[in-house]
Design a protein that fits this description.
Layout (H helix, E strand, L loop, with lengths): L9 H18 L10 H12 L15 H13 L3 H24 L4 H16 L12 H30 L1 H24 L1 H18 L4 H30 L1 H7 L9 H11 L4 H34 L6 E2 L6 H4 E2 L1 H16 L17 H23 L4 H16 L19 H17 L6 H31 L2 E5 L2 E5 L1 H17 L6 E4 L4 H6 L17 H13 L4 E5 L17 H10 E7 L16 E6 L23
Parallel strand pairs: 5-6
Antiparallel strand pairs: 1-2, 3-4, 6-8, 7-8
């Protein structure tokens, strides 16, 4: 292999570990959002642990691995936030460890540590989409399994060298890694389908080029990988389909991308950047311009520093830009002019106009990855033509680039470092982004003396960026998430607006209902079911746009009637990202109309207890409805501390 982890890595590993511990301390119990998605991640495994069947009784749109894994953890350790937190912390550690190991196969210790720290602070501890209590454990587990499969493919590439030296024993070693990578890739599919697509496709590509141009060996290697991958997926989904039925598995889960509702199509187009493709391409172009101008700035400064250090002002310095006159040699005046030009391009040009250029440093990552793949493949073919085999580092770089690009397919025109979903797609891209600054861009400078300077400047800026990001993340956690919602199942520290509403709702449910009573929470917020140990009578944990068509609305109403649900809570969850923003007005009108006909408002929870608040109001609230027929003492109108008893506003 190109690099082995040894004692000299220890200082960097300690730095990474200290940074991780610091991140845990400053963000402790502040990771989740009790409203959006997290309720599903809390309550869905609990329903499975109690015997309900995924897909047929508990609707799910991802693979079965994560909910059943967390259900198993609930059965072993008990249902609590602590179990979910532990899952996230351990998985985050594994992801960061894999990032460091993969980076070390391509780079030295310092840039590998920079990549690991970047993933830590722009992914693992980012408020939206963190690893400890993610919006989806399927995405988190898909991320770690995809990286694990990638690492095994890298090991297979290293074992390929042994095949050339040692004969059949080496080939069997490579086959062993390919088979293990196939199993892990299959598990990635069972976690999250699109992440599994990236892992499986990368495995096929890697297995195919390991013995390129030997076609027979390449085909055998693909079989070694693809057989276990497809076997794992086919076996598990076969068992699930036999128990839950093919209709629930394929139609309601959207696993095969069949019958996707227009709301989810709209959402996915926004995620990928295809909602406004021309604008997305313009933003990508602006980001690429900034990256290139910054690379030019670093190169110019490196050459100036090199000349100053050598104290030879009369000698011109070689430049990477071959378009310059005098065979690419530049005077002091030209170097300073390039510095000024790069600053202008970096600061002024992208900020001109109204195109919203500033979406993070990774917008142009697909372009960089394609360029890197093309250059690496050309190098790979050149090495094969000269020595009949390519270097392991070249092969590893090509495989990691393929995986990075395929991982970004879901957000291909809008690769942002912000947002919830990008945290789980970016780790491999972060490795190669760091590689570009530590290796690719410095390598374009002709003057060998300036290359280390450019590398040091690039790494110093990455470390500085990580430090600033860590400071910003810490500040946001400590200033935004300040209201603790403490329950028997653990504590989550939320933003005050959400925390007040959920805290009041938890106390209300505990007082007004029995543990055996069903309580419906729509369209999101079933963390309340988890916190209070109340049964969700609906098949869905989430009823945001696209989840309930008219037929499914009728089924949801039937479930509420058959379960004799006497308490329904409606959260003020606006959903413009789906193209339909207001529950009961823009979607699920039939369900909300039935609620208003058969239930009456009982309380408002949140910082504002105005009974006239409507879904879509700027302030967050939760409205409680009780069944009109119920007139016993437990459900009589009463005042809730901090709330006003309400009457219907039909």
């Amino acid at each position: 292999m190109s690099a082995q982890i040894n004692r000299r890595d220890l200082p960097w590993v300690v730095l990474i570990s200290v940074s991780f511990i610091f991140g845990l301390v400053v963000s402790w119990e502040r990771w989740g959002n009790p409203l959006v998605d997290c309720g599903r991640e809390m309550n869905q495994p609990l329903r499975l642990a109690r015997g309900e069947m995924l897909y047929s009784q508990v609707r799910h749109i991802y693979g079965p691995l994560s909910p059943y894994l967390n259900a198993l953890l609930y059965r072993i350790f008990g249902a609590s936030l602590g179990v979910l937190y532990a899952d996230g912390i351990v998985t985050a550690l594994v992801i960061i460890g894999l990032v460091y190991w993969l980076a070390r196969q391509l780079m030295g210790r310092a840039p590998s540590a920079a990549a690991a720290l970047s993933v830590m602070w722009i992914c693992a501890f980012k408020q939206a989409g963190n690893y400890v209590l993610p919006y989806s454990y399927a995405a988190l587990h898909g991320c770690v399994l995809g990286l694990a499969s990638l690492a095994l493919l890298v090991k297979a590439a290293g074992a390929r060298e042994g095949a050339v030296r040692d004969g059949a024993g080496g080939r069997l070693s490579a086959a062993k890694y390919l088979m293990c990578a196939g199993v892990i890739a299959g598990l990635t599919v069972l976690a999250k389908t699109e992440m599994g697509f990236a892992a499986v496709s990368t495995g096929v590509a890697a297995a195919g080029i390991i013995y390129y141009p030997q076609l027979r060996r390449s085909l055998v290697s693909i079989v070694y990988f693809l057989g276990p991958a497809m076997g794992v997926v086919g076996l598990v989904y076969g068992i699930v389909a036999a128990r839950a039925g093919w209709y629930a598995l394929l139609q309601e889960s959207f696993l095969a991308l069949q019958n996707l509702p227009v709301e989810l199509v709209y959402f996915n187009k926004r995620m990928s950047g295809f909602d406004q493709p021309l604008l997305s391409l313009a933003q990508m172009g602006g980001s690429l311009l900034r990256i290139l101008s910054f690379a030019l700035l670093i190169a110019s400064i490196s050459l100036l520093v090199t000349r100053w250090r050598n104290r030879r002002p009369g000698i011109e310095v070689a430049m990477a830009d071959r378009s310059l006159p005098n065979a690419g040699r530049a005077s002091y005046v030209l170097l300073w002019a390039l510095v000024l030009l790069s600053v202008l391009l970096f600061v002024i040009a992208p900020s001109a106009g109204r195109l919203q250029w500033d979406k993070g440093p990774y917008l142009a990552m697909p372009v960089l990855l394609v360029a890197l793949m093309v250059l690496t493949f050309l190098r790979y073919r050149r090495e094969v033509s000269i020595s009949k085999e390519a270097s392991t580092r070249t092969l590893v770089l090509l495989v990691v680039a393929v995986y990075s690009l395929l991982s970004l397919v879901r957000v291909i025109l809008r690769v942002r470092s912000g947002g919830a979903y990008s945290s789980y797609l970016l780790p491999a891209s972060v490795i190669l982004f760091t590689y570009c600054w530590a290796t690719t861009f410095p390598g374009l400078i002709k003057d060998r003396r300036a290359r280390p300077v450019a590398r040091y400047i690039g790494l110093a800026l990455i470390f500085a960026w990580v430090a600033v990001t860590a400071g910003v993340v810490t500040h946001r956690f400590r200033t935004n998430n300040t209201y603790p919602v403490t329950t028997t199942r653990g504590t989550i520290i939320a933003i005050p607006e959400l925390g007040i509403a959920f805290d009041e709702a938890v106390r209300f449910i505990n007082r007004e209902t029995e543990p055996s009573d069903p309580v419906a929470v729509i369209p999101e917020g079933t963390s309340l079911n988890f916190f209070t140990d109340r049964r969700n009578p609906l098949k869905e944990e989430i009823t945001t746009p696209g989840y309930l068509n008219p037929e499914q609305e009728e089924r949801a109403i039937s479930q509420l009637i058959e379960s004799n649900t006497r308490l329904i809570l409606v959260t003020n969850r606006a959903t413009p990202e789906f193209g339909r923003g207001i529950f009961g007005r823009d979607y699920c009108q039939r369900l909300m109309g039935w609620i208003e006909d058969n239930f009456e408002q009982q309380a408002i929870f949140g910082p504002d207890h105005d009974p006239n608040l409507r879904i879509g109001a700027r302030t967050f609230f939760i409205r409680a409805y009780r069944k009109k027929e119920m007139r016993n003492a437990k459900f009589e109108m009463r005042s809730v501390p901090g709330n006003l008893p309400l009457t219907t506003d039909n």
